Amino acid sequence: MARLFEYQGKQILKETGIKVPRGRVVETPEEAARAVEELGTEAVLKIQVWLKGRAEMGGVRFVKTPEEAERVARELLGMKVKNFVVEKLLVEEKLRIQRELFAGVVIDDYAKKPLVVFSSMGGTGIEEIAREHPEALLTHHVDVLEGFPEYRARGLLSRLGFKGKLLVKLSSTLSRLYQAFRKYDARSAEINPLVVTEEGEVYAADTHIAVDDYAVYRHPELGIEIAREFDRPPTELEKIAYKVEENDYRGTFYFFQMVERPNPEENYIGFHGAGGGGSMMSMDAVLNRGFKIANFTDTSGNPPASKVYRAAKIILSQPGIIGYFASGSGVASQEQFNSARGLVKAFLEDQIEIPAVLRLGGNYEEKAIEILETFSKFIPGKIEGYGRDDSPEFCADRLKELVEKGGRKVHRVKPMTDYTPPEGAYSFKTLTGRVYINHSLCARCEARPCVEACTYGVLKVEEGKPVLAISEEDAAKGKCTECLACELACYLEGERAIHIDLPIPGLKEYREKIIKEG
Fold this sequence. Notes:
Largest sheet: 7 strands, antiparallel
Distance between the termini: 35 Å
Number of domains: 4
CATH topology of the largest domain: Rossmann fold
Structural class: alpha+beta
Radius of gyration: 28 Å
Strand content: 15-25%
């Protein structure tokens, strides 16, 4: 789920017709002072973070004057709260609260329906209310074809004793909350507390909304950078990685940074899994050998070699790691030679010096291990490939031995240069990159290993030169699967005339910054 900040959630509620306190988001102390002056009343300043319990953290402060608001804002902006650095504050009018309630809508995965939840008590976690005051809680599964009209909400709320104008206002709010939930494809939307003021008005005093990952693309207006459920803002490298996943539907690439600048003294390694359960087992294996993981990465669902390559390049953009460990379920249905080719291309380009232990168990694992062994002689670091019969624990032991035997070398991030094709190079576009073939070098090659390696029949020999055997349009649409076989075959047995350019937007600049910072 992709979480929204409170100010974003309140904008959605406001657009849906739910009352929210007057106010606005600010980023400087001066803006906070002006906001309180504009409100003309006592106000509350709230840090904008994806965390509950902000008051207990000192992140909710009441002020009476613009001058006090500016002083408090200086204290709040820039403060560190868990994994957040506070960059925004929500400045709102202080409400005269008479009563606190809770309202929410969530997806009930078991029932496969939206579930409306309402409590006559608020201001605390709904789980605690359900446990200690079950009589205050009502739930209702929504028929998505019918929706949740106000009359349905009135019938529900009247069971808790609400009546009159308050019943009408609460019913309208609850029905509109469901409308917002559906409109923005939320997995959960809650108002806590939903307050009744001394004047008898109903306001959403605080809100938490999380949008379904798979629906984020339908809501560019929300400005969600990464469709993931993080407990902190995404790092720069996570943003770069997400663009890879966002723009390539083939297989899955998940990248999460555990630490931005790994300390080599703390035994950090790059971790590359494949499949949830197997990745967890493999992660446990390296953790039990005294390693820490700088990142958690998963490439599964039969991704192309190009996607595995990009994942490896991003993992290798982390300075300070002392090893690279890849291991998944061991019985993956994906074609593991694609993973091997993607890893080899990345390792060759970066000429890694740290050891890498790669457990590629699954379909065609023998071929995958053969690829790793064949190209390991061109890579400075020690590379070892294993299959399903080699346990994650065994492979973790191998990595530990290689790290120690190699003198605990520390990975240094290498600069990335834009590929400049030779003049007159033959080229064609693929789904996410471009293939370049230097035909002047091909003239010296008699074997044509690139064509033989292209099992999908994308290449053919014409007038002694490898060219497309399919239309350029079909190649660009994905009939060239970016398996990287032609490039690696040419590297090994040909004239190294082929280069497959697979851009990773932002990574070159990121590496430049990392190198500059030392």
